[in-house]
Amino acid sequence: MTAELMIGTDLAAEMVAKAAERAAAVQEKYGVQPCLATVLVGDDPASATYVRMKQNRSKKAGIASRSVVLPAETTTEELVAEIRKLSEDPEVHGILLQHPVPAQIDERAAFEAIDPGKDVDGVTMLSFAAMAFGDPGFRSATPGGIMRLLAEYDVPLEGAHAVVIGRSPILGKPAGMLLLASNATVTYAHSRTRDLPELVRTADVVIAAVGKANFVRGDWLKPGAVVVDAGYNEGNVGDVHFEEAAEVARLITPVPGGVGPMTIALLLEQTVDAAEAQLG
Questions:
Q1: Pick from 71, 111, 169, 263: CA 20 to 30 A from residue 122's CA?
Q2: Is 60 a catalytic residue?
Q3: 80 with 67: CB under 8 angstroms?
Q4: Domain locations in the chain?
Q5: Which residues form the Tetrahydrofolate dehydrogenase/cyclohydrolase NAD(P)-binding domain (predicted)?
């Protein structure tokens, strides 16, 4: 293996430790513990595991957790009503809707029920607009975590060609906006992109967020490229064929231990940001 690993674990631990210090300061000054509310619809095992992980990390950061678990048959209207209650609750500072939600729910309507001041996962249209226009606001947790990881490893983005594979509104699209704000030249690729391997070979930075195990192969990459695997599939497998890519890339994120810890760390950091803004 020739690539250096971009490990998110240590940086994420530093971020959580700093968030814990700030959370303690908020509690000392205002007598209020920052609180993150998680909303889970249904009983998908992977989603339930993610929520538990976020709640456990919250405790380590001195952030209170409130859990709302709704049955799988919940309607859009019922979910929106629950989220609006949390949005109006002054004891809740951040709201996370675990996604994906069951098929009968309008996910976008549910996201938009989150008070923008509590959108610590960066999923509302207002948060996306802030990222697109470079305004202050919450970053989508995974793209924001990716940017922090790239900065930690001194990846030069100005003038670089970045290819983002995937165009979801909470991962691919905001990742491209944040890269653009760093003066990268950004190309979005997706399921209808023609000659995808040839396009990826032109990239200095590749963000894989397609949701298919081992989708990006080593011979798709430009030698010396920086590869960020934002995928997570069954069996702890990312969207990039790691062994092949590591023989070509200069830097690469492992799965697990790369992007995942950064996502949670940024979520907690932004929860403390939200608490400070609401209290101060």
A1: 71
A2: no
A3: no
A4: 31-115, 141-258
A5: 140-278
87 marked among binding-site residues: no
Identify the active-site residue in 115, 121, 204, 273: 121
- Exposure string over 214-231, b if 16+ CB within 10 A, otherwise e: bbbebebbbeebbbbbbb
104 as an active site residue: the answer is no
For the chain, residues with pLDDT lower than 50 are none
Is there a binding annotation on residue 258? no
What is the CB neighbour count within 10 angstroms for residue 279? 14
Average pLDDT of the chain is: 97
Q: 202-243, pLDDT tens digit by residue?
A: 999 999 999 999 999 999 999 999 999 999 998 999 999 999
Coil, strand or helix at 197: helix
Instruction: Give the pLDDT confidence score for residue 137 in this predicted structure.
Output: 94
Which two three-digit tokens encode residue 11?
A: 């940086």
Contact 67, 38 (CB under 8 A): yes
Q: What is the pLDDT of residue 1?
A: 61
Cβ contact 212:234 at 8 Å: no
State the Cα–Cα distance between residues 201 and 211, nearest whole angstrom. 20
Produce one character per residue of 33-61: b if its CB has 16 or more CB atoms within 10 Å, e if not: ebbbbbbbbbebeebeebbeebbebbeeb
Torsion sign, CA atoms 24, 111, 213, 175: negative
Asked if the 141-258 domain carries CATH number 3.40.50.2300, the reply is no
| Topology given in CATH for the domain delimited by 31-115 | Rossmann fold (3.40.50)
Is residue 168 annotated as involved in ligand binding? yes
31-115 shares its CATH topology with 141-258 = yes
Give the helix/strand (H/E) hosting 251: strand 251-252
